[in-house]
What we know:
- 5 copies of one chain form a homopentamer.
- Chain A is α+β, with helices and mostly antiparallel strands.
- Chain A is 51% helix and 15% strand.
- Chain A has helices at residues 73-82, 87-94, 149-156, 167-180, 182-201, 206-237, 246-311, 320-323, 327-348, and strands at 31-38, 41-47, 62-68, 101-104, 109-119, 122-132, 136-141.
- The longest helix of chain A has 66 residues, at 246-311.
Amino acid sequence: xxxKIRLKRATxxxxxxxxxxxxxxxxxxxAIQILAYGPDQYLEKRIADIHELDGLIGKYQVLWVNVDGxxxxxxxxxxxxxxxxxxxxxxxxxxxxxxxxxxxxETNLYTAMKMLSMQDEKLFAEQVSFFLGPNFVLxxxxxxxxxxxxxxxxxxxxxxxxxxxxxxxxxxxLIDAIIDAYFPVLEAYDVRLEDLEEEILGKPDQATMNLLxxxxxxxxxxxxxxxxxxxMAGALAHSESPLISPPTLVYLRDCQDHAVQLxxxxxxxxxxxxxxxxxxxxxxxxxxxxxxxxLTIIATIFIPLTxxxxxxxxxxxxxxxxxxxxxxxVVIGIMAFLGFGxxxxxxxxxxxxxKRKTHRRPQ
Amino acid sequence: xxxKIRLKRATxxxxxxxxxxxxxxxxxxxAIQILAYGPDQYLEKRIADIHELDGLIGKYQVLWVNVDGxxxxxxxxxxxxxxxxxxxxxxxxxxxxxxxxxxxxETNLYTAMKMLSMQDEKLFAEQVSFFLGPNFVLxxxxxxxxxxxxxxxxxxxxxxxxxxxxxxxxxxxLIDAIIDAYFPVLEAYDVRLEDLEEEILGKPDQATMNLLxxxxxxxxxxxxxxxxxxxMAGALAHSESPLISPPTLVYLRDCQDHAVQLxxxxxxxxxxxxxxxxxxxxxxxxxxxxxxxxLTIIATIFIPLTxxxxxxxxxxxxxxxxxxxxxxxVVIGIMAFLGFGxxxxxxxxxxxxxKRKTHRRPQ
Amino acid sequence: xxxKIRLKRATxxxxxxxxxxxxxxxxxxxAIQILAYGPDQYLEKRIADIHELDGLIGKYQVLWVNVDGxxxxxxxxxxxxxxxxxxxxxxxxxxxxxxxxxxxxETNLYTAMKMLSMQDEKLFAEQVSFFLGPNFVLxxxxxxxxxxxxxxxxxxxxxxxxxxxxxxxxxxxLIDAIIDAYFPVLEAYDVRLEDLEEEILGKPDQATMNLLxxxxxxxxxxxxxxxxxxxMAGALAHSESPLISPPTLVYLRDCQDHAVQLxxxxxxxxxxxxxxxxxxxxxxxxxxxxxxxxLTIIATIFIPLTxxxxxxxxxxxxxxxxxxxxxxxVVIGIMAFLGFGxxxxxxxxxxxxxKRKTHRRPQ
Amino acid sequence: xxxKIRLKRATxxxxxxxxxxxxxxxxxxxAIQILAYGPDQYLEKRIADIHELDGLIGKYQVLWVNVDGxxxxxxxxxxxxxxxxxxxxxxxxxxxxxxxxxxxxETNLYTAMKMLSMQDEKLFAEQVSFFLGPNFVLxxxxxxxxxxxxxxxxxxxxxxxxxxxxxxxxxxxLIDAIIDAYFPVLEAYDVRLEDLEEEILGKPDQATMNLLxxxxxxxxxxxxxxxxxxxMAGALAHSESPLISPPTLVYLRDCQDHAVQLxxxxxxxxxxxxxxxxxxxxxxxxxxxxxxxxLTIIATIFIPLTxxxxxxxxxxxxxxxxxxxxxxxVVIGIMAFLGFGxxxxxxxxxxxxxKRKTHRRPQ
Amino acid sequence: xxxKIRLKRATxxxxxxxxxxxxxxxxxxxAIQILAYGPDQYLEKRIADIHELDGLIGKYQVLWVNVDGxxxxxxxxxxxxxxxxxxxxxxxxxxxxxxxxxxxxETNLYTAMKMLSMQDEKLFAEQVSFFLGPNFVLxxxxxxxxxxxxxxxxxxxxxxxxxxxxxxxxxxxLIDAIIDAYFPVLEAYDVRLEDLEEEILGKPDQATMNLLxxxxxxxxxxxxxxxxxxxMAGALAHSESPLISPPTLVYLRDCQDHAVQLxxxxxxxxxxxxxxxxxxxxxxxxxxxxxxxxLTIIATIFIPLTxxxxxxxxxxxxxxxxxxxxxxxVVIGIMAFLGFGxxxxxxxxxxxxxKRKTHRRPQ
Lengths: 363, 363, 363, 363, 363
């Protein structure tokens, strides 16, 4: 898949007329490919002039029109007229803030969802819009490059059921392919969490924590992305639209199962992330405790001894002890006694027990 | 939009008769504008004498009466009689504590919602009330200045569908404009959170935290404002009132979608805020740890050495070491040995490993 | 409203016969007032002998019997027989642990709720029980003094609709008056939270925290009180009992709206309280950090210098440096160099940057 | 009530045949008492030989068979055959892990619940099973001793309605008695929380915290016990079984109210516990802060002074200050100036303001 | 049960054709055993050639085909054709990420669930798939070894009802056996939590915390495993499929009860884990506090005294005190006074009160 870019969201002026397409001039211009097929039909081509499409509608059992790039409002408007799409649905195509959803406009079904990918260790989400009509599927993507090639390949090779089924099965195949592509993304986070766990059990530092925060943040937004995907898959799987046939519903239910699995995975990784965070913080706490113990032991032993030495360093003329023969040795003895006394007191308080080997580690 | 002021909430005496209008004398006096139109009709004027309204009702396909300012109970009462509004709905107009809601009074529909704006970096919420009747929309605002000018412009220019549709579509257009105006407000908080994140990754201090608390607080109250907006939009989109026609319902459903998006945005920013807070606190924790380490290393190395120096600073007469030729150098040697010994012990314990560059940062 | 006292809850022996009235002997004895009215009727008097009531039932359009004090089981029992109340409902009247609720006993409707007031900065909750019959309302309060005087006044002055409506509207008016009286209580907490915020931004201490805990605790119990009030108001507003007429239902729905507003206010203050708590704790954390920094800077600069001074305070005979001409000045120079070196190192580490003015404060 | 013992749970081998009774040999052997009554009938006796029961079924309006002790599988099996109980229900009787629940087996109704008591400050939960048939109630308890004596007393004295009603009213009376007995248990925790609060406001230590944890733990498990009790009471109160007559349903609804009250009490105590915990932790934090301040003030004032003293304690030959007449007094003066300077700096920083009296305490 | 291994999850290429079996080559090859029985029939054998199965279908009242190992796609595919299974169900058999669930494919019922066991103190979860047809049950396990032997034994011995009932009762027996086997797993965690509690009350260290984190993590994932098990059991117990007869539904409801109990146990252990964690952290906090107190007491007493000693260790020529007769003793006296003064001040502040014996411990 070629390198993708994050599109600037087009600024929508508040109070704009409903149904207005808000297109940013920096977006890629639309590139249209069609794939038309039936049990005995097959046509694949890139469309240069949009009017080439006019004659194709209804001629094939299934017509899949894929549009990469939303940078030209008139093209989208024209497609809307050609396929009789509702202006609000078209507005949603260019508004890149859509949650995954299904809108039933009777003559066609609008579905929006996010296509995820990892690029340079960063999460990349692209909005994909689907229109399902009686014998067509129309898809809009933000930029070129997608995870739908296996479906194209199956159509080309007449593999699987896709060539014998109607447009609804194509819609299912496309959504299934996009949902399947979520799994490797989630697994990438699983790997990162395992790396982080190892770091935290070893020598964690601020960088570890920064990374952990970033992973948790991504997982939270993944969960927010997946939640409506599950709803969308459920809405499709229980759709009462005549555009979706009962055999396809069984397959869509499988899609819904996968969406639920994804949501649980995201939830589970997020919990692992939180748990690692707690673990990290309690390690810091423990370590601080240990540092404090070292400081306290040293200071508590030597500060009183230094005081005694200071006393006998005073320059008073009349300090009888200074003139005794064994004064020095007695004082040294007292110091040694005090020092070891405190040392053993700390051992007694359990501040100096050797660290147990942490042979057991969280799994 | 001109500078707005926050109105004092009128104090309502407990046990007041239901339907009593509680109006604060400091509130602006009502200023009334009308906009009446139909496919071939158009009238726009400011109403100086409220009785000018009497003859206008029913003469136009749609009559929009907008009242800015709630500071005169008798005007509101008069409008209530003119448009046959329920006293409880009128009471709600002047009670500035309303949650967004829809009340169906059969002959008309009462809708309350909050209009948000940012003024001098502060969130400003103004209550707007709508009454929808068979051929009128009556709106009440706290003060002059609103985000509805694009709708007015469209009516004046006979742009869009608004001139060919009934009052229900006008209600939709107004609510849609107000909901659209929430997006820039939320985006302002997004920008602030990004600034805060940068500060926290750099040199956070108490001021950063104060600001973060204030942003979190605002987002929490935004969420509390948006929650009933979503309910209200849902109630309108699924309304069974004969005052709302099926084509308008499709548009209201789009409104509901936007309200859901807003709520998710607010939720997501709030989570980012919490996550930044945790990040800030764990940074503080980390830094405290580092400070403690510096203190402990210095104190632990030098306190024992100072003790040794103190011992040989004692003035006992009989201290044999003092009189040896190399005593001083031996003691200096022992001190150096001890000092470096502890230093290397700290290196061994990993207290002195250089900080890893935090080239990875949360996104 | 006169000073109220908190009643001891009567101890109920487990396994007591259902319907047993558990009355504590220290409770005030019942004092009964009646207010009977209709469009052309009016009677208000204090009842000394309970049998005065016998003849009054059914003679007036609405008969309101108010009982202040539950300290006499036989009076309550007698009223129960007179108005044909279910023994379980009577038991609930004297069990002061009731959640707000509505019980439909077909011939009458039992409603329990809490009446709140602030006395000497303390929250005071009193249980009020209502029985609604075809032409009577019977209310039980723990002690004298309530917030229902505005309703009494309206009846006396024949103001508002109350005199033309039936007993159900009286029930609504009473409940509405009690719910209205919740608002000033909640606002008192709002004021306290604002005071606390100021203290926390200024010089917070243990007393601030104690107060904050107490406010949070009160708000939590307020929320627990308000939750069932909302349910109760909802149950009344959607009641299918023939005792409540449809016009009154519209008013009860307004009550329900107020209950929802109250719950949201309580929730919002509680969140503000939690947020202040977090703010307080993170301030403490910050301050500890600053204290540690001061300690560390002073100790880290002077401990090594003191060690050097200690070395040259040793009394060895053979210490060549002591006898050089400039030894003292060289050592002083080295000390100054070391001291300032560490000082600038701390500046470099950012431990000594001046505090930014916290001109931005949470709102 | 005599001293109870906690029974060992019988180990159930995974994969055992459904309906197998798992009985631990250390459990007390069953002791059977019957209480049979009707408006004009009364029989109470201890059953030595289980076959005595055969003739009694159906002869009395209500037959209550109470079994204390589950230590003999054959007795339970025999009772199961006699009263035509489902094997799965019998299995539940001996499986001491049951949540409170109601199972409707058409010819009879199985209800399980926990009977709580406090023994030596410890929470004790015993499983009680009820079978309700057309004219019998069969109860199983783990050990002898229960809170049902008031019900027995009422039957013996023909007090209350119990003697005129059917078996369903007896079931209600028993469940009501058990639920009533929860209140004193919860109140015991209320008392403990108040004691703990006082300790925490005074001189909290590790023992306080241990106790607080133990109370919180108990309250959490109480809540877990009460949750299904509420469900069970609700299921009974809305049961459609012909075994429960409508008048009894009204009483069972009262039971459900009590269960809801209990759950709210437990919830409220649990929140108080959490709040005390937070309070305790923030006190610790505050106190640590104060300790650090004392340490820092002392160390910061005296460490630099000691350094100065150390400098003039050095033994260099050429130290001109030592030989001046007023050197000593000048140095002492400088020291005093420095010391007081730092002291006033700390006062200026607010580290030495006297503690405010915490006359306000959490309630 | 023999030692199990954790299987690598087969990587599923995104966009794969739906119904594709993804089988990892390292998985064990399928080993098939059959157990066919009826009231008068019995056959048990290992199947070497898969075609042996062809003739057996329909000949016995119940045919149980158990497949251990999923390492050969063609075998699974063949079984799918033989028993007329849906390709999506077969795909689920090999996708080891299934949540427990029930899918109704009309001619058969697909059930997936996890079989848990503890091996070397580690939690081991294996996916088991069940297909229920009119007279067969087909089970797929990841590896050999299961907890179903008691069921096999009962069939062999014609014990219990299993031999007189249809395939649905066999399905129940198998699921019941697997759910029963969850209890010992959960109890193992109960034991570990008790051990951990003892450690935390004694001498907790980093290793304790690591273990606690690992236990909490396991309990969280157990809960995540059990949640869908409960749903699955509920779906079976309320299934409307004709494949499950009403008497079996009663038994399945018992299964559902057990699943709910398991979930509550897991929840309760998880809460205990969290509570132990909090307890541990607050112990650390307490201990840190105590360490700080020791350090502060020692430093605060001796640092000023050392300063005084340092002053009289200065070598100024003109220090009058040095030459007085009792100077030394006066200074020593002052030091003692200061030292004890501070000591008693600390006692007064309560920093030196002896630790109360923590005879009360959390239960």
